[in-house]
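Recall the central idea of this unit: under ordinary conditions, the amino acid sequence of a chain determines the structure it adopts. In this exercise we apply that idea directly, starting from the sequence alone.
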Amino acid sequence: PTLYPHHQYVAVYLWLKYGFHADAMIHLGTHATHEWLPGKQAGLTPEDPPEVLITDIPNIYPYIVDDVGEGIQAKRRGRGVIIDHMIPAVKGSGLYREYSRLYDLIQGYNRQRTKGSVVANRTLETIRKMVKTLGVDEDLGLKDLDADGLEKVEHYLIEMKETMIPYGLHTFGVSPEGEALKSTAAEIVKQNTNVTLATVTKGLRDSGPREIRNLMRALNGRFIPAGEGNDPIRNPGAIPTGKDFYGFDPQKIPSKAAWALGKQAAEKIIRESLAKKGAYPRKVAVILWATETIRNEGINESTILYLLGLRPAWDKSGRVIGTRVIPGRVLKRPRIDVLVNPSGLYRDLFPNLMLFIDRAVRKAMVQKDVENFIRENTQKIEKALTHAGMPADKARALAKVRIFSEKPGAYGTGVSETAKLSGVWKSSDEIVGVYKNHVGFAFGGGLWGVPAQNLFQGNLEGVDTVAHSMSSSVYGTMDNDDVFQYVGGLTMAVKRATGKEPDTVFTLSKTARDVSVQDASKVIGKELRTRYLNPRWVKAMKKEGYAGARAMSDFLENMWGWQVTIPKTVGGTKWRQAYEVYVKDKYGLHLKKFMEKTNPWAYQSMTARMLEAVRKGYWKAGDQVVRDLAMQYAVSVVEKGVACCDHTCNNPLLNQMVVGILSLPGVTTPQFVEQFKLAIERMAKCPLKKQVARRLELQKRLSEGFRKSAAPTVKKVVAGAEKVTRQARGKAERSIEGYKMEEIKRKDTETKVSSSGVQWFVSLFILLMVGLFFYGVVRKR
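Accordingly, the structure predicted from this sequence is:
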């Protein structure tokens, strides 16, 4: 259902206008929530929630320069005036401790083997043990460390050493200094030979003061200069920051440079499938994000086209005017089918590209010069729909659809929120149901957001590869929840539909000059080792205080998301390593003391999430580790109170498990067990035993609900398609959903109607909602 903002949410914004009488508001940082509320995609009306809430107050919006896509959303749906700010400084990850030792051992082994040394075999055995202990073999999919495997490990370590990582966080209005300034400037110049070190250094130095200066200009009602956005390492023109950034002409996507890289990515996906399986991929599911498209100018779109056996056609100005078929004699392979999953933001910003891709799929589908997996899969889907009772003409039309996303006005797959609520669901299969409910809306062929879960299911059944792109030097797979909710959610859905785990890969294009395709396990493992387990990253985050501790907790929460959605990417080794670094403090960084001082609830959240990995069966930790974690968590709860994140106070099953562990002989005293239990019960205002009983009953009801909520019937899909057609013709009835809202006036909060008429719109909106509520009640009677 479409959920409009609740009363408390609305009250905050109305208070800013009519209680606080704000002259301006600042939404500090990326990003707020009001621009993601239901309503029109763009060109909002006075009745749409974002417009109602912002009223006529200027909305000044400091935003990271690297996230132009979501920044455009803040402009279009949140009326934001962007003041872009710098990304964090970047430094080389380097190799540390055991990884440095492993690299030295490999170098030594190579020298020993060349000389025929008798100790070479002993060194190789040490290397084997280290690779297994560190879990590098899991990241690289190595079954045995032969000569080829050893070379892969060596290259992996070199990649780790050369990987640039964020060094701390950016403070708004403060430019990088010292070593941070030097390393960031050097990396920008290294990746962009057309700029000088002096120019880049000046741009970085000017960024901080410019951010503050233009924030003050905005508060003074003055013009904010516009300029380019993007990752400064990809586009040095994005600095100095402090600008109101803009996007670019979507008719120029994909660019010629992006086409070259996207074609390479498609070729690498095909080669990897041939090497691994001895067969071409039959269907590749590609995720499209607006942020990625704006960063890399259409690499994923180009990958889709080349898989189909098409290429873009440009006019003299660089605008894409259509596609051209690559002849079979040139292609020399089958035309590969695709499933396209744009995000809700992509749907809003690039509807033209969705239509472009839809036309491309249909053009490729009819080609007969080489084997055509698109046509073959279409025929299978059509046959299944017809067999299920759909009229032949409808089945033929719907079988050609390949684009599925969230319904208009909705954003996200629901996987992130659901995965984190691990005390609510019993099986990860339930998360698949949430994903399909959110994403199973068809686009293309005259349809725009039609509920089509069974059609989506039919498309999932043919997928053998899932692909997504990463083009940012800052954002990775575990510093946000969006990557696992899209990539992990789609992978889960494919596995559920086919019974087999698809190959999940990332197209990596951190610079504008090259591209690589890597397995998800390798990408996630390398990020974990170069950032979150790396003393260099941890030390930088410690300097950020509360926010740094939160970043540490966030990475573990997102690692949990990967564990739930694609279990092979995480596993027990990574949980053990996180425990050793953050709980046992293996590098002597005094992390517990740091978190107790700056953000004790981050530490509590991390220990609870590790325990939850044990409780749900993802991590088979030893008894001593489990007891230690239980004590760490319980002491934090007793001394600091419950953190009240999704998996602590909202998780009686975890707290019951902790009580059981603490009650074991020799762990702690009975008095402390009661203290912990009392803290949990005071928080919930309910005995723990009763909390557990209620949660088990809730789990039972939810599980039954997921079993009963089968995919919509064929009749519903047809009806949905017909409804969209009627709407396109202007014949559909208009329906509005909302809550009953009552206005309570107090003498100290009454104000006069503003001359702008905005209060009139707000009052009309409230009265309209109340009227529609009672109208609905009367109709039901």
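The CA atoms of residues 28 and 480 lie 18 Å apart.
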